[in-house]
User: Fold this.
Amino acid sequence: MSSPGPGLGQEEIDRLVSDAGQLLQSGASDQAIGVCRQVLSKAPNQPIVLHLMGAACCRSGKLAEAVPPLTRLLGVQPGNADAHLLLGMAYEGLNRPDDALKSFRQALALRSGWPEAGSRLGSLLRRLKRYDEAIACYRSVLAIHPDDDTTIFNLAIVLHAAFRFEEAAAGYQRILQRHPNDAETWVGLGNVMKDSGQVVAAKACDLKALQLRPDYQEAFSNLLFVESYHVLCPPDELLAHHRAWAQRFAPEDRAGRFDFADRKGGADRPLRIGYVSPDLRRHPVGTFVEGLLRAQDRNRFEIYCYDESWADDEINRRLHSYAQGWRKTIGLDDEAVARRINEDRIDILVDLAGHTRGNRLGVFAFRPAPVQVTYLGYCTTTGLSAMDYWLVDEDLVPEGSVERTTEEVWRLPRCWISYEPVADAPAVVTRDPA
Assistant:
């Protein structure tokens, strides 16, 4: 395609705009950006080109580059709701939540009840734990689009997060009345049942989701989690189900792709310990693991953390300061994470999640480290043959216990966890005798 010359005419602009739009639609975002730059270098204030440029940058992940053209566009067209939405998406990806909220709210104000803008705004508010605002946002959309299933689903998620279990369950059930074969909604309902203590109902929901989608990994892990709390589930059956998960989602033939020849060294070489978790944040796991990471001897151990979360809270930042290496794993497949762990020359790899939400157990199936351990986040076996040890204590798994595991049970002396009181916990008070 030839570059436009000076005095770019409207016919040439229209042709290049058409080319950019087609490239963007076909998924060639970087090429679309190139065409937009050609036009903007000669005609810098073309609204449609500024919009295409912002959209293409957002789609290609070049979020910082999306902000200038969208801001310029909104200077010309302040009432462009689509541009406000795109700008909010860019700000959110750049971790500028206040700017993102402002843009999403402006988009929704310009196009009242717009489900996509409501979804973006509500999701960000939920991530910021501003649950009441998120609920109000979704309900404002439903006031205009009462049967929008995506908004009903998202509202149920935030109601669940706000511990309003009955309302959350009602939302999921409303969707299932129209779409009884929606496996994702069955999982959502199962999560509500689980967290409200209705273990049998939760198990039925997860089984229904697996019946509809046998390859639904989250549903299977949810089922295992529920069964691990179900006192009537026989130990042999629990082990069999965990092994079935591993056979389906973490097969043994993944192991053997990495070697550990570079792990050799003198006795004085610090051991590298890697921790894998979605909960290195304000979460019980983050609270329990903080004292452990802080106290580890830096002369004997090097700490690496593999963080499967978007968290940027005070606990996440403190944990970050205790580690020699910190890797974000969101968006990477299991083999890519395993490869990075192996490249980091980790000696002992520790799973802190088990079958809880956001786990990366599939990484362990590749055996990227010579010793692999599960600890803290889950109170039964992982089912993985590649997991060498399960760290417990005498109270969690007493000698002679009927617990069935694929791992070797390793009992720690005294207590198996290190508790770190949360900084904003209320003061302990002495109750007056009645």
